[in-house]
Amino acid sequence: MKKTFQWRDSFETGHPVIDEQHRALLECLQGITGCLGGDKDSEAIEQCRKFRALLQRHFAEEEDILDQAKFPRMDEHRETHRETLERFERIYSGCGEACAKAGKTPCMEDFAYLLFDHFLRGDLDFKSYLQTRKRADDPS
Ligand SMILES: [Fe+2]
Ligand SMILES: [Fe+2]
């Protein structure tokens, strides 16, 4: 497995539910790579669909958490989620289930980039906000 698909400390947001879901998304992505290169390529497609479902659920739950925390840039953040799902669909339909036909998945790098972009660019926007709020709620 490529080193670039491993969890990094810089992905941590400090919110336990969000971090757990982010780890599950990365694990799911790793599961796609795990299916490749053998006779299990239809599983890779199944895994891509699972990745999409996890991503949709994660965005919905993350938006609930941020709503409850009164995150001030909700509209912009929702927009990044919508764009990420659109990008997913473009990659997914562009792939044309290539892995099932040729055993190649050009989409893997694109999915990894999409996910890391969500962790490092999208979600870092609320990291300091949530941590500041946590300290204000629990000044111990
Ligand atoms: Fe997000
Ligand atoms: Fe997220």
Tell me what the structure shows.
With 140 residues, this protein is mostly helical. It has a single domain, classed as Hemerythrin-like (Four Helix Bundle (Hemerythrin (Met), subunit A), Up-down Bundle), CATH 1.20.120.50. The chain contains six helices and no strands. The longest helix is centred in the middle third of the chain and has 28 residues, at 41-68. It binds fe (ii) ion (FE2) (2 copies).
Topology readout:
Blueprint: H1 16-35, H2 41-68, H3 74-95, H4 98-102, H5 107-122, H6 124-137
Bound molecules: fe (ii) ion (2 copies).
> What is the helix fraction of residues, given as a range?
over 70%
Give helix and strand order, one letter per element, not per position. HHHHHH
Q: Report Rg.
A: 16 Å
What's the overall geometry?
A: elongated
Question: What's the CATH H-level homologous superfamily?
Answer: Hemerythrin-like
Spans of at least 5 consecutive residues with low confidence: none
Proportion of β residues?
under 5%
Look at the structure and give the CATH class: Mainly Alpha
Class of secondary structure makeup: mainly alpha
Task: Supply the CATH architecture.
Answer: Up-down Bundle
Q: Which whole number gives the mean pLDDT?
A: 86
Distance between the termini: 42 Å
